[in-house]
Design brief:
Layout (H helix, E strand, L loop, with lengths): L5 E4 L3 E5 L5 E6 L2 E4 L4 E4 L3 H18 L6 E4 L4 E5 L2 E2 L2 E8 L2 H7 L6 E11 L8 E2 L1 H6 L5 H23 L3 E15 L2 E7 L7 E5 L9 H4 L5 H11 L19
Antiparallel strand pairs: 1-2, 2-3, 3-7, 4-5, 6-7, 8-12, 9-10, 9-12, 10-11, 12-13, 12-14
Bound molecules: uridine-5'-diphosphate.
């Protein structure tokens, strides 16, 4: 068996050296973490579903000429991506008050925000990913003002697309987190969307019932996470009704 060179291991994904220079393999694990890693469980099948859901979204964004690191899915748990230099920020886009924003500003969960809001957290687990301002980002050189402009423009485009996509399948996009990277191509550098977009990194509420279809299910200690992620995949048309994420492939004709 070939031993691949591990480049980076995160909480829910591992990156390996890719088959060609400038590429990496992004592997989705079944690990679920919350509260900055203090709560940790293995939820069998989560990685497979997130790989499929993130592939679907990144492919659509590529088709819309929104630049991403995604090249193609390789197998059940892995996708081929372009190697980028990750900007150490979690970019959070919010449409409806929930989670840390609701707490911080004393807003009732579910309140529609006057407009979509973009927040930045500095990616540092030991500090608990603190909220930072554009001033911190540019002063400490995590991104330049021009890069921040690109990141914000990209975030707005991704939010517009995702709001429509999820509304079309009966889900409200409450908020989500993205990460961006610098893609170097010859003499040029551009900001592209990196990491993943999946129910692990979004809040999705059913339009009719208000039921949660995201990682809050795990954060709240409930046990129906796989069913919920599976339903998101089904509603997106990634998996047909009787299909299981583990057995996608040629189907026996009876
Ligand atoms: N989020 C994430 N990873 C993080 C922190 C937040 O994917 O490390 C997502 C989270 O799932 C939600 C959004 O970003 O969709 C906003 O999260 P919030 O700041 O409210 O933090 P939380 O309440 O999730 O701790």
């Amino acid at each position: 068996m070939n031993k691949r060179r591990k480049i980076y291991e995160g909480k829910a994904k591992t990156l390996y050296e890719g088959p060609e220079p400038g590429t990496l393999v992004q592997h989705f694990k079944d690990d679920a973490t919350a509260a900055n890693g203090k709560k940790h469980e293995i939820i069998e099948g989560k990685g497979v579903l997130n790989n499929r859901i993130s592939e679907f979204i990144f492919q659509k964004l590529n088709d819309l000429t929104i630049p991403t690191h995604f090249i193609r899915r390789l197998n059940m748990r892995e996708q081929l991506i372009k190697e980028v230099e990750i900007i150490p920020l979690e970019i959070i886009v919010r449409n409806i008050a929930a989670g840390s924003l609701a707490k911080r500003l004393g807003l009732e969960e579910g309140t529609r925000l006057p407009r979509s809001i973009i927040e930045f957290c500095y990616k540092d687990d030991t500090l608990g990913d603190p909220l930072v301002s554009e001033e911190h980002i540019t002063a400490f050189g995590w991104a330049t003002p021009a890069e921040l402009d690109d990141i914000m423009a990209l975030s707005v485009r991704v939010n517009d697309y995702l709001c429509g996509l999820f509304m079309g399948i009966g889900l409200k996009l409450v908020d989500f987190k993205i990460e961006c990277g610098r893609l170097f191509e010859g003499e040029t550098m551009r900001i592209v969307l990196a990491d993943e977009i999946s129910p692990d990194s979004c809040r999705l509420w059913d339009v009719k019932t208000g039921a949660k279809f995201d990682k809050d299910i795990f954060r709240l200690g409930e046990d129906n996470l796989i069913e919920a992620y599976h339903e998101v995949a089904q509603r997106l048309g990634i998996l047909s009704e009787n299909e299981n994420a583990f057995t996608v492939g040629p189907r026996l004709v009876k």
